[in-house]
Amino acid sequence: MKEFDQQVAIVTGAGQGIGFEICRQLAKNGAQVILNDVDEELTKAATKKINDEFGSCVGLTGDASDPAFIQEMINSTVNKFGKLTLAIANAGITLFGDFLTYTPGDFQKVVQTNLMGSFFLAQRASLEMIKQKTGGSILFMSSVTGHQAHKNLAVYSMTKAALEMLAKNLVAEISSYNINVNAIAPGATVTERTTNDPSYKNTWSRITPIGHPAYPLDIANAALFLVSSKARHITGQTLIIDGGWTCVSPSPYEQ
Per-residue pLDDT tens for 158-211? Predict the structure, then answer.
């Protein structure tokens, strides 16, 4: 028996990076996985990679900030696998911008994806878990920027702090249904997106106490713990995974 045998998971925003590695590790450990991304090509490529290794992943392309699509995704999951037990709201966007000139359009995009998508995935997943009477686990993707100020990320940081409060508040709403809910707050992580900046790894290696930024597997390992049976008595919490950066918080803009 593998640790996640009999578990069925939805992971949003999982075409690459952290979300992809979470899906990969869940599949490796026995889960049936619904991998979602808004980019169809990323969805197809990521699903193929996981199925070539483990054969237990279904890709669903769509906008994870849209409540109607979220419900379609849950319906598809239950129709395919008979149940839903794990929901990981990984989809999110970052739109940098100075506070004094930030536009309403960019504000709406960030809030829609980071908050509305996460909220309604948790809501619809909880309703399904309650109907099934199986319980389950929900996980939100926060960030160290929800704990420490970071220049030009006022809106993004606000949404990430809000997700941590949402995890706490849902303890009062869904604990009686045997659903636990937590968040993880990654720090600097080397992914396909961050490698576009040639100085990223060196900068964060210099200012991270442990000596290097995270890699997707570091974050995925923490995510799997919090949705596993080992963490059933942990709920309403946020686990920071940042190599110690928030303890000292040097700015990446310092030379």
Answer: 999 999 999 999 999 999 999 999 999 999 999 887 877 888 889 989 999 999
In this prediction the pTM is: 0.95
pLDDT tens per residue across span 86-105: 999 999 999 999 999 999 99
Q: Quick check: is 75 in a domain?
A: yes
Question: What three-state secondary structure class fits 117?
Answer: helix
Range of the domain at 68: 8-187+215-241
Separation in Å, CA 235 to CA 33, 131, 149, 216, 232? 22, 21, 25, 23, 8
Instruction: Give the burial string for 64-81 (b: 16+ CB within 10 Å, else e).
Output: bbbbebbbebbeebeeeb
Number of domains making up the chain: 1
CA distances from 142 to 74, 90, 156, 162 (A): 22, 9, 10, 9
